[in-house]
Amino acid sequence: MEIEVKEKNDNEMVFILDDVDVAFANAIRRIGMMEVPKIAIEYVNIIKNDSVMFNEVLAHRLGLIPIVSDIEAIESLIPNEECDCKDDAGNTDGYCSKCSVSFTLTKNTPGVVYSGDLNSNDPKIKPVYDMIPILKLKEDQEVELEAVAIVGRGKDHAKWMPTTVCTYKQYPVITFNDEKELSNDVVEVCPNDILKLNKNTKKPEVQNIENCTLCRSCVRASENDAIDVGYEKNKIIFKIETDGSMTPKEVLLKACDVLNSKADKFIEFF
Amino acid sequence: MIPIRCMSCGKPVSAYFDEFQARKAEGENPKDVFEDMNIKRYCCRRMFITHVEVWE
Asked: How far is B3 from chain A (nearest CA, A)?
């Protein structure tokens, strides 16, 4: 398996996997979305809410705010379901300082309340963005609440999904049949400008093939099979975009860890 | 209030909403603002351009 990173920044990464099964890429994709742990607000104790927003809407909005969940932050908390703060009666609710981070929000001045107004009891674990509007307050209105964030997984709720886009596609291949006449309509019809007319030869040429979405608009426009769009079976373009709570690299490495630990269960068993 | 995240893909679009509104009020072309803020998908863009503020 060969890996080539095409684009990389704080919350987006595109890379090409060569000589790899679709099944493997899909395993990484699904684990990256559903089973990579992330921190999100789960419990909200509302002490006072004078605003016109309902408590449950407010709690839902708080839950969706991305919270810094890099490796260091995740490892400083134990998973809520494994914590010994649960009672013996099988009650799964509950939290303690070892498995949760607490945020307080108090405001009584008119205006918009932003995610930056949340005060965390752990300086490292805080909202990723400070400018997310949560609610509005008018004159003489007040909001006071405690929000508790725990580690969770995307399969339980979308707020624990570290990735927004986590997807792959097979590497596109465009082939021309030189025996047949290719109409120049194919250039105009391509939505991503993959095909460009070469001024010297007066024939369409392929550029930026990785942007091709395999929509086959060009195949339909040519009408005589002079062009065909296919894909390389074992070459995959993988894209990970995160909500900012962790880097795409951390998501990928953690997804591999999770896959590894699942496979380890077989090794332990036999 | 604008939803915290894009309803389709989950990108936290609300973090950019104030900036978008301010720049649009100054007369900038929304398309240029989106490209500048790196909001590429039409699912995220519609969160901004179709939003109607009813909370006054």
From this structure: 8
ipTM surpasses 0.95:
no
Average pLDDT in the A13-23 region? 94
- pTM score of the predicted model: 0.87
How distant is the Cα of A254 from the closest Cα of chain B, in angstroms? 20
Which CATH number covers residue B38? 1.10.10.60
Pull the structure tokens for residue B49: 């351009």
Cα gap A230→A226, rounded to integer Å: 13
Cα–chain center distance at A243: 6
The dotted CATH code for A2-34+164-240 is 3.30.1360.10
Given this model, what pLDDT does residue A88 score?
A: 61
Asked if the Cβ–Cβ distance from A132 to B11 is below 8 Å, we say no
State the pairing for strand pair A2-9/A119-120.
unpaired
Q: Based on the number of CB atoms within 10 Å of its own CB, is A131 exposed (0-12), middle (13-18) or buried (19 or more)?
A: middle
